Amino acid sequence: MAEIRIRNTEERISGEENVRAFLSSQEVLYEHWNPAKLPAHLQDKFVLSDEEKAEILSTFDEEIRDLAARRGYRTWDIVALSDATPNLEELLKKFENVHTHTEDEVRAITAGKGIFIIKGTDDVGYFDVELEAGDVISVPEHKPHFFTLMDNRQIVAVRLFIETEGWIAHPFADPAFQKA
Ligand SMILES: [Fe+2]
């Protein structure tokens, strides 16, 4: 289940309802899928064939189509990252910059872990959302954020898009942001 860390105060928020209420106050959508639906051979696999990606998408087809119908997503795919990913270090360096998009950024984690760093309201400042399998998040359009891996450096997630070109990152230079 997702956990929040507010960077300015080190306050942590856990428990599904508390996390959902906090994220809702920050206009971030949070939902949860049942990660146990995933066949056992895919629950701990981070290098995926096209057939395995298709199997993950078909496992969560109902959840994906429900979310897409409610929120207007028209296309989706699977992203898998791990130490086996070519140029992972360079990719992470590229990821770890605060940016915005013209459409929301949706991720449904199906295996592993990941973390969104998001610029909250002025009274909250930057906060981290630590995500694990089953967590579904949507960061609204124009909200400064970045996504990166956690210490285990392994993740599989479903990405959903309205328009794939809406997902181009626009750098957001913010003197208020401090790493870690
Ligand atoms: Fe992004």
Number of helices, counting only DSSP H or I runs of 4 residues or more: 4
What quaternary form is this?
A: single chain
Using the 3D structure, state the CATH architecture. Sandwich
Level of helix content?
10-25%
What is the strand content? Answer: 25-35%
Structural class: alpha+beta
| Overall geometric form | globular
Number-wise, the strands total: 11
Uncertain segments: none
Report the CATH C-level class: Mainly Beta
Q: Characterize the largest beta sheet: strand count, sense, and whether it forms a barrel.
A: 9 strands, antiparallel
Order of helices and strands: EEHEHHEHEEEEEEE
Bound ligands, named by name, code or SMILES:
fe (ii) ion
Distance between the termini: 22 Å
- Counted up, domains total 1
GO molecular function: acireductone dioxygenase (Ni2+-requiring) activity; acireductone dioxygenase [iron(II)-requiring] activity; iron ion binding; nickel cation binding
Family: Belongs to the acireductone dioxygenase (ARD) family.
Cofactor: Ni(2+); Fe(2+)
Pfam family, one: ARD
